[in-house]
Amino acid sequence: MEIWKKKSVEQYSAVPYLATFANCGLWVLYGLPVVHPHSMLVVTVNGTGFLIEIVYISLFLAFCLPEKRLRVAAAVAAECVFLAALALLVFTLAHSTKLRSDIVGTFCMIGSIVMYASPLSVMKLVIKTRSVEYMPFFISLFSFLNGISWTAYALIRFDIFIAAPNGMGGLLGLAQLLLYATFYRSTKRIMAERKKVGGVGEVGLAQPIAQLEEHENVGAQKIGSHGSDFSLA
């Protein structure tokens, strides 16, 4: 919604959307009756997620810079080719649902780990800038709830391919929520300062970065002055 309102992706990263797009596609393949029988819930939920990610990525492509648009479009194309190739190979070379489940399930685990780990770059930005502006709260919240829910579902059926990555995802989602709680107030302050100076776009991020650099420079000067005093003594 923020991208739609501002008509710009600003500092938002496409990585989480790309990772979720590929992950949902993998889980749809995993849940097919010819791969892993009795998993229609997996198909319907991830099929819906796959369609939603198409909308998100389309919005991202519409409002990002041309050079970034090419990279994102190429990544989407590569993911589609990979999903098609995997499906073709599995249906052609694996002749039992057990083997198909093991092969696709392994890729699903990797995809889920990548999806849950994709916000790590945003978390690094949050720590560096002391601002959660580009780490949406509801994405973090639902990432946490999604991980917990699928872990519970997997434990009922004891599906290690679902339980392992989603358990880790729940922990990463919790880490994002803790970061959000930690830097929520500083984000409000940064955004208020931005409004005062009439800045737009990246000012909210530039200010804390500049403050960090200034702090580091002051620290270096202090160390240098102490070093000079010591040598004079």
From TrEMBL:
It is a multi-pass membrane protein. It is found in: Endomembrane system. Belongs to the SWEET sugar transporter family. This is Bidirectional sugar transporter SWEET. Keywords: Membrane, Repeat, Sugar transport, Transmembrane, Transmembrane helix, Transport. The chain crosses the membrane at residues 12-30, 42-65, 72-91, 103-122, 134-156, 162-184. Pfam families: MtN3_slv (PF03083). The keyword Membrane applies. PANTHER family: BIDIRECTIONAL SUGAR TRANSPORTER SWEET, RAG1-ACTIVATING PROTEIN 1. Its main location: membrane. It comes from Striga hermonthica. GO terms for cellular component: endomembrane system; membrane. It comes from the Eukaryota. Mediates both low-affinity uptake and efflux of sugar across the membrane. GO terms for biological process: protein homooligomerization. InterPro entries: SWEET (IPR047664), SWEET_rpt (IPR004316). One of its GO terms (molecular function) is sugar transmembrane transporter activity.
